[in-house]
Design goal:
By secondary structure, the chain is mainly α. The protein is built from 33 helices and 9 strands. About 70% of the residues lie in helices and about 5% in strands. Helix 20 packs parallel to helix 22.
Length: about 950
């Protein structure tokens, strides 16, 4: 029977108690105490059911039992500190385990957690007749940053204890009433209730154990005497009589003969439709007989199902349906009644309507129904509605068709929303049955269905996590979802960092414009991103604890949990949907780090090239840079720059001496001699003594020019060329890995990559590019003939393009000649007019001046030649010069592309031979390695025997 028991006690250092040990004892888990450096573990035959409840603002680490109580031990400094408060309650045995769980968690949440405490709940069922719960409570309130410094002394007041006792009785009685249990418990004493009964004493676990071993205790003896006394004073409550229903009447002959099932009924309905069409088309007696037979059988099934429902008073719902649907509803309800083994009208109606809605929705989706697909379908219907409204506004769809489509859309939307509501109700019902509905109190009521679905999904994905951790994970997922809306792509640490930088720039710009509302909005978004980043980092840290070897790989690679690689690793682990092995984890992290290094190299190479990093561009750039270094060796340029700099500095010094001597008013013969000597030296160096400043500046420019060239060459030799060579190697390594992963016969190619020559590497790159462009995995060995045919086509196309280039180039050259002739003609006409402007002067002077006459004749000849060239303009009347120039550029580009394809095909035609040689090299090296391995084993054996090989 249900009994009342609630006991409150404290766990303190004054009693030489350890809260980590207490939590380990009550939870049955092995917990490591950081203060004592010991692992606390107490084995139990029946593992307790444990939960951790915390306020919504609590950090995620409080849901990890070991971290929680170690933090309490660390935070409490005094030697007599009260570490925790424990509440022990006896749970009514009349309730199921799920109902017991819901009762304890609801009571704990409403009574303690809402006041700011963290509750560590352990439900013990070692003795089936004595289920009870231990509730460990923190003595301090919690914030996002941890425990607050000041304890809440209100929790120690007697009024609180009395309120807790009353609350437990209230919650327990509500649960008993909900399950139609007559028993009730009362927190008041017999004296307070005016009952002349004696109270019993609490026996406890130790007393029960002694009684089991046959050892009588004083408490048990006292309780027996009290119970005997109480038995004489009170009357036993009358036990409820179980009503036994009479045996149901035997099924009618029609029911026994006709098998009623929805599947058969639907198949029969389809047959009737098919035979009806056939009978209308053929008008034969055979089809008519079939139709009559099927129709009679259908009516028998409907009648039998309806009669059975009528006998159980379940036909009321059927009568409310349209006449044409009553038969189908009867069959469906009858089958559900047999399937669910219930006669509850509400349950049967819900089941029938749910099945019919799900069948409709499945026909809409054309695939199996899931909650995610239903949500996506709602979004799709919204888009369809907007599209139809736009088409109607544009006049692209008739009103009749618009109304018809809208009716279909609304019907689908209604069915889909009904299915969504059913999923949500199922989730809510499951949580309630399992006693987990208390966890929904942290959200607004309108969000409970959606959160219930998320909780169930997390429970499926992470069955090993406690319910408190699952709730915290759902809250974190909400933050990540909000962050995804801000980032507008997958949430990773790298994406968050990039978006935060963008928000910072945006905030600075808005602050300059003094837009305070936008600034506040940006700050709120930044806070969400900070929370999301913290969540990802914590998840990485927690997940990595399960993979110590992976942590070692990370440390050896110089990465931390905060790196973008770790965020990608976490996403990969979640997407796998299973527990990955340590080897898989290490392999993936190594692969990610390699990709990160390669991406960094390619990004830096792109900055140097200032265009896309392709194998062709990289190879061309390497040739150009090497040619620059070969034409003018860097050593020669550096020596020349050094010599020029020394000469410039010496020239500055000599010019200064020259100016100093020149400025003297009295000059001796020695001064004159020195001046002449300095002047001669400066003149030899190309410095004009009359314009020293300009000459020295020009000399400085020349020195700077040479030094810049030297620095450019030095940068090419030390930075650019090595970087681009690295980029080329990266592209080759990527191609080798791709070929090894794509072609099974070359799976060990990456291991033996040192055997490949430069030409073979180049061909592998071409294989990768070919597959990426074609979107398939090409069989280069067995389809060489296709490549040869393709090469012939490309050669023919290239020749055709070359001819087109010649033709268009000739037209473009004519346009260029005409344009040049027009310019020459305009200039010559202007010169001719200048010579003829003076009229009579021309006759009197120009005709006598033979030089001017020759100039006039030369101008006239230029005009005539230009006019001859301009005759080509008539041929180009129908041509467009700019269009022809653009066409020429396109043709040259096409020719260049065909040339590249031809060169690539030249290499791909050798793939078969190259792959064969590569396989032979790999086999030879494998044999050599095996031989060396066997020799090493033999040497060790001989050495063990004391012999030398």
């Amino acid at each position: 029977m249900a009994i009342y028991h609630l006991k409150v006690k404290t766990i303190s250092r004054k009693k030489q108690q350890n809260v980590v040990a207490s939590a380990a004892y009550r939870s049955g888990e092995a917990l490591y105490c950081e203060r004592t450096k010991e692992t606390k573990y107490y084995s139990r035959t029946v593992q307790p059911e444990t939960h951790i409840l915390a306020p919504s603002e609590a950090p995620s680490w409080v849901f990890r039992r070991q971290d929680l109580w170690n933090e309490v031990e660390r935070f409490e400094k005094r030697g007599n500190s009260r570490l925790a408060r424990e509440v022990v309650v006896a749970i009514p045995n009349e309730l199921s385990e799920e109902q017991q769980r819901e009762l304890v968690l609801t009571f704990t949440h409403d009574t303690f957690v809402q006041q700011g405490m963290i509750a560590d709940v352990a439900i013990h069922r070692d003795d089936k007749n004595n289920p009870h719960a231990h509730i460990l409570l923190t003595t301090r309130e919690i914030s996002q940053d941890g425990f607050v410094k000041k304890k809440n002394r209100d929790w120690d007041k007697k009024e609180n204890l009395l309120a807790w006792r009353e609350a437990w009785a209230k919650y327990a009685n509500l649960s008993l009433e909900k399950e139609n249990v007559q028993e009730r418990i009362d927190h008041r004493s017999y004296e307070e209730r005016g009952i002349e009964l004696l109270p019993t004493k609490h026996v406890g676990y130790k007393g029960h154990q002694l009684e089991k071993r046959g050892i009588r205790t004083e408490t048990e003896e006292y309780n027996r005497r009290v119970q005997a006394y109480n038995q004489r004073l009170i009357s036993l409550q009358e036990k409820r009589q179980l009503l036994v229903k009479e045996q149901q009447k035997k099924e009618t002959d029609s029911i026994s003969k006709v098998e009623i099932s929805v599947k058969g009924y639907v198949a029969l309905h389809k047959k009737i439709e098919l035979v009806t069409k056939q009978q209308e088309r053929l008008q034969d007696n055979k089809s008519k007989q079939k139709l009559h037979s099927y129709t009679w059988l259908k009516e028998q099934i409907e009648t039998s199902a309806y009669r059975q429902l009528e006998e159980k008073n379940l036909h009321v719902y059927i009568q409310e349906q349209p006449m044409e649907l009553q038969g189908e509803y009867s069959v469906r309800m009858y089958e559900k009644m047999k399937e669910l083994q219930t006669e509850d009208m509400v349950s049967l109606v819900e089941a029938v309507e749910r099945d019919m809605v799900m069948e409709k929705v499945e026909s809409h989706l054309k695939q199996s129904v899931t909650y995610e697909r239903l949500q996506s379908h709602v979004v799709l219907l919204d888009r369809w509605e907007k599209s139809m409204q736009k088409q109607q506004n544009d006049g692209r769809i008739s009103d009749t068709r618009f109304v018809s489509n809208m009716n279909i859309l609304q019907a689908q939307r209604g069915d889909t929303k009904q299915a969504i509501q059913w999923y949500e109700l199922q989730a809510m019902s499951y949580l309630s049955r399992q006693g987990y509905s208390v966890y929904l109190h942290d959200w607004k009521e309108e969000k409970h269905p959606e959160i219930a679905i998320q909780l169930l999904e997390e429970m499926k994905q992470s069955p090993s996590l406690s319910m408190g951790m699952i709730v915290q994970r759902v809250k974190e997922n909400e933050v990540l979802s909000e962050a995804q809306k801000i980032i507008r792509k997958k949430v990773t640490i790298d994406a968050i960092d990039k978006r935060r930088k963008q928000l910072h720039k945006w905030k600075v710009a808005e602050q300059k414009q003094k837009r305070s509302e936008r600034v506040e909005h940006i700050i709120e978004q930044a806070k969400v991103l900070v929370k999301a980043r913290k969540i990802l980092v914590e998840r990485c840290e927690q997940e990595l604890k399960q993979y110590p070897k992976t942590q070692g790989v990370i440390q050896s690679l110089g990465m931390t949990e905060n790196s973008p690689v770790m965020s990608k690793w976490l996403s990969w682990k979640q997407e796998t949907g299973r527990d990955v092995t340590e080897e898989e984890s290490m392999s993936y992290v190594t692969k990610l780090s390699l990709q990160q290094k390669e991406e960094k190299i390619l990004q830096e190479a792109k900055q140097v090239l200032r265009k896309e990093v392709t194998y062709h561009n990289v190879s061309v750039a390497i040739d150009q840079l090497q040619e620059q270094l070969t034409n003018t060796p860097i050593k020669i340029i550096l020596d020349e720059a050094r010599t020029k700099r020394m000469a410039y500095e010496l020239a500055i010094e000599r010019a200064g001496e020259y100016q100093k001597l020149s400025s003297k008013w009295r000059k001796t013969s020695s001064h004159q001699y020195q001046l002449e000597k300095l002047k001669t030296w400066l003149t030899q160096k190309g410095i004009d003594v009359n314009n020293l400043a300009y000459s020295l500046q020009r000399m400085k420019w020349n020195v700077g020019k040479i030094e810049k060239e030297a620095l450019r060459k030095e940068r090419i030799a030390e930075v650019q060329l090595p970087l681009i060579q690295q980029a080329k190697k990266v592209l080759e390594e990527q191609a080798i890995r791709y070929v090894g992963e794509t072609y099974p016969e070359l799976k060990d190619l990456y291991t033996h990559r040192h055997l490949l020559s430069q030409k073979e590497r180049q061909v592998l790159v071409q294989m990768k590019l070919w597959n990426e462009e074609s979107g398939t995995v090409y069989d280069f060995v067995n389809r060489q003939g296709n490549l040869e045919e393709l090469q012939d086509k490309i050669i023919r196309k290239k020749l055709h393009v070359k001819q087109s280039i010649s033709h268009v180039s000739a037209v473009v050259q004519k346009f260029a000649k005409v344009h040049q002739a027009e310019q020459v003609l305009a200039q010559a006409e202007e010169e001719k007019k200048e010579l003829e402007t003076k009229g009579n002067t021309f006759k009197r002077v120009v005709l006598r001046d033979q030089t001017l006459l020759k100039e006039y004749q030369a101008v006239q000849e230029r005009i005539e030649k230009a006019k001859e060239v301009l005759q080509l303009k008539q041929e180009l009347v129908k041509e467009n010069g700019e269009a022809r120039q653009a066409e020429l550029e396109e043709l040259k580009l096409s020719y260049h592309q065909f040339q590249e394809k031809e060169n690539r095909l030249d290499g791909l035609l050798e793939v078969s031979d190259i792959l064969e040689r590569t396989r032979q090299k790999m086999q030879q090296e494998a044999k050599e390695r095996e031989y060396e391995h066997q020799q090493e084993i033999r040497r060790k054996k001989m050495k063990h025997r004391g012999l030398e090989l």
